[in-house]
Amino acid sequence: MAAVATSRRDLVNGPIGSTLLRFSLPTLGANVLQSLNGSVNAVWIGHFLGPAALSAAANVNLILFFLLGTVFGIGMAATILVGQAVGAKNFTQARRIVGTGLTFYVTISLIVALLGFWFTPHILDAMHTPHDARPYAIAYLRVIFVALPFINVLGFAAMVLRGAGDARTPFLLMALTVVLDVGLNPLLIFGYGPVPSFGVAGSALATLAAQVISMAALLVFLYRRHHCLALGRHELGFLRPRGAVIRALVAKGIPMGMQMFVVSLSAIAMIGMVNTFGIDTTAAYGAVTQLWTYVQMPAIAVGASVSSMVAQNVGAMRWDRVSRITRYGVLYSIVMTALPSCVILMLGRIALRFFLGDEETAIAIGLHVDRIVLGSFTLFGIMFVLAGAVRATGAVIPPLIALTFSLWCVRIPFAHFLIPAYGPEAIWWSFPVGTTCAVTLVALYYKFGNWRRNTMLTNAPVTAIPTPALTPSVSSTATMTEGR
Prior knowledge:
Mean pLDDT is 81; it is low at 1-6 and 458-484. The chain is built from 16 helices and no strands. The protein is an all-alpha fold. The chain starts with 15 loop residues before the first helix and ends in a 6-residue tail after the last helix. Helices cover 77% and strands 0% of the residues. It has one domain (16-478).
């Protein structure tokens, strides 16, 4: 197969700042579209079906985040391996990695989907889902489990495409998915003509239909464009897991997946505590978390782009560019995270009304939570960029340790033990406290750790570089911060 991909960007040559920005923007656009999709769905559910349905969706969304984390690490490891292979101009190796990763994704996704569908009521009971929201949540979550394999495979495809330097195709794919999902939501929720009304389950059915159609469109696009990652007929054997590749994916992917696992479990623990304060507090929390996605997505986009760019430069042995890529990433993340935070704070009540309608009690709670938590997301952005840079070399354990400590030894205990004295205030203040801890630990490892000597594949060459210093402004900021 010809290695042709006109949308693939060269990440190892030319100016760093402008290249990183142009590579990040399609990823940011895709993330914004994804967030917009979730928000539109939440508007339909919360505004027209009420707080109980919105609370159900908030609980299910956290479970979905947890489910995506079950295979997220393998996708991230594959992204880094693909980036290093493309940086070394070894496109055959890149396709071998894609084949092995795809087989893993499909297998695990099917197992998780079947188990999750069966145990849906038990999962929701373990989360203390409010009684009024439980029937909605069961109907919604079971459809999401059916959609999970498609969601996972499309997410894997987007990650490895970015690893190859192609951020445009995932953006177009997300745009198609969002248009389909948004268009189908009111149709399947409320029904029209011969289409019956499915209620809150209709929102999940819209997600399922959008994912299936988008997957078909992606396959057509990749093969018509002869994309460098599309397996040729004679390369279908690449779908059989290769020993060295699967060892690298598992050894590096499990710790990265554990990071998602740790975050999602902590989020479930948090909403379990939130649920104990009633339906208004849970609905408010569901609404503000929808707004927070717009703040997190720029940092995630920049961090993912930094990771892909660093991986390609490592593969090309361009270590001289790695620290400069990271500094630009930190700068872009600070700006892109601060701007939406300010917008949300200024819009305040108007923004929350989109999700909560005229529920004044829930709106008041949401406004209070935003004032406490939003500022910490700038710190989250810095942490995400630094962690993305070190993970691109295969140093995946230290970020996991930092994240686990900040969430389970700082944030969760902070909230749990102070709730009796301070009520829900302990939950809201645990966010900035935990974030500050995490970014401090990651920044210290970036500065003093040995991540530059790590490798992904066991036979990969190792070339150490001198420890680069952070710029003064970045260093002083990084030691103050973490993430959500």
